[in-house]
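Please discuss these two lines.
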Amino acid sequence: MSLWSLVSHMPPEHFSGLFGEFPRDLRSLLADWLENQPWEFITGADSFCTSAAGALLSAMVEKLRCLAGGNEQQRQVLQHISNLENAYRRDPLRLVATVKGILEGERAALLKRDRQLPLSFHRRQEELKFGLDLQRLQHRVGEIQVLQEQWKQMGDGTRACRQTKLQESQLKTDGKLQGNDLPALLLEAVKELEGAKLQVLKRLHIWKRQQQLAGNGAVFEENLAPLQKRCENLVDIYFQLQQQVVAVGGELGSDLLSRLLERLNSVLSALVESSFLVEKQPPQVLKTQTKFQASVRFLLGARLLQASAKPYVVKADMVTEKQARELALGGYGTPLSESTGEIVHNTVALEINSTSATSCATFKNMLLKKIKRCERKGSESVTEEKCAVLFSTDVTLGPGHLPFHLQALSLPIVVIVHGNQDNNAKATVLWDNAFSELERVPFVVAERVPWEKMCETLNLRFMAEVQTSKGLLPEHYFFLAQKIFNNSSASPEDFHNRSVSWAQFNKEILPGRGFTFWQWFDGVLDLTKRCLKSYWSDRLIIGFISKQYVSKLLGQKPDGTFLLRFSDSEIGGITIAHVIRGKDGSIQVENIQPFSAKDLHIRSLGDRIRDLAQLRNLYPDKPKDQAFGSHYNSECPGGPRGHPPMRPQSLLVGWGRGVVLCCPERGKINSRAGQHALERVTGVLPQQIGPGPRWLGVPQAGSGQLRPGPGR
């Protein structure tokens, strides 16, 4: 979203005095284009800044000429072009200052209203800054080339004199060079290259962090092509500067020459080592004896890898958290001494695709055969133990055949040996993905985090897992806070500044239950994903609400008003709370036995609600057929083998080892357990069963599903 699309609808008084010699209608014409130029990063008055400002003026004029060709106000656009040329051609830096002031004023007005700028704005600013810095470097290389030619044309005596003056200047300024001499320009160029390198490394760290957040469901821009282009551009400048430094090495003196080459080589090493990364992560919950895939990419491979008689091979090894920490502290330059697990099919060739200009190694058929467990800290369980896959290779790069040992570490992995460990392993991964920091020591993560951040994480995971655009609401967060902090008397504001611990999230059992907060929440996720996605997306389920608050909401509502909430007492259950008004006017709120995913696969939630005649209006007052009509399944015209259509009114229900008969004449079930069983399988309450001949259902052996029985 562009800045202009936001501020153009704001009242003009917010921008009084902002548009003077650069009129508002011209700003409107240029709209997004104006914001996609690096006005704010042209900060000096040197030859580069003047040249960049002149180029922007020319580009603006050309843009307006294109607009004039298809614009009804052609005459006005041409007048704008004339005014721009007259006002700024002699001093294009004035145009930069004018536009910069306008954009700063617009941002200030937007910040005053919204308190923040869109994330896309910050991303665009970073891209504009890097683009201009790259232009500055290329300009600097050109300047050095010109001076280098001048040095070549000097006589030996003149060069010696200049070198003596250079050394004297260094002594007077504590080694700092000044002016436009070649050594000074080389030093400035190397400094700018180091700054650009830091920008690239930061972007790579951000990409990796976004990749990790994507494990929790965040949107992730996977495309590495722009980052690869950045790395390649900087390496090209590195080689140009290195050649220029070596070419005039005799004139620079041994000390300055060695310092420049050392700094340049440090830039190359950082770019090469950081550009080897995991493009497709292995599963973060990994079961032994299960096949998995991953891929690594070398962003500089297509540019730097030299032809080799044998293909370069990438190896994958399992490492513990301790080993990962030691590798990180050593700069990922030390070969691994011992793997902590045995991975089958763990070597793949590093290939170059000439069509896409990429260098990748894709592991398609890995399998973790076994894992060596390490000593755990305190009460840490096996599902809290983190390890990783280390990808490594040895390559020679560039015309100098420089050797490099490259390593890339995957995101943290929790290894499990049984499916029942999956839930707790997912909790460890979720916490680590959400709350780890950039450039951390592996795999350090906070033990306690702000509740607001936890809410963001739960919402992100919920929307991604269920695949819905409808996220959690403030009232849902309030209920979740009451649950995790075991405090039903606090107000929503009381939780704003609270922090939640890892123990509260997935170690401590909830009071009166047999499960943790995460185990309960993950059960809700699974149920909603499998059976309730459309109901949730249509906002038919309140879900996250306490039984006590339900009674408060429904207490004054008419008979038959109902709502849907996730079960507090069971993992992965949803229940219907509804109002029953007695003949004496008394009100009772009943909660039907929770339905599990298995129940809802037998008969959908919508059909169960349709079957229950005592349910009339979805809270607050929407008729149930209007709310759930689109979720009803059409009934078959007849039962199997010509029998009447099945209605869950008179059934033979099998539950466990018992068989319970519903008597159609009396409309009752012969045991309390049977009432619960019938309710669980069909969604029908005993009081809904009427007298008279009805269809009989018999449980299929071992399936828990109903098959037609003989007619009565």
Notes: The chain has five domains: 3-117, 130-272, 275-427, 452-631, 644-708. Confidence is low (pLDDT under 50) at residues 170-179, 636-674, 680-684, 686-712. The CA atoms of residues 305 and 397 lie 5 Å apart. The domain at 130-272 is CATH 1.20.1050.20 (Glutathione S-transferase Yfyf (Class Pi); Chain A, domain 2).
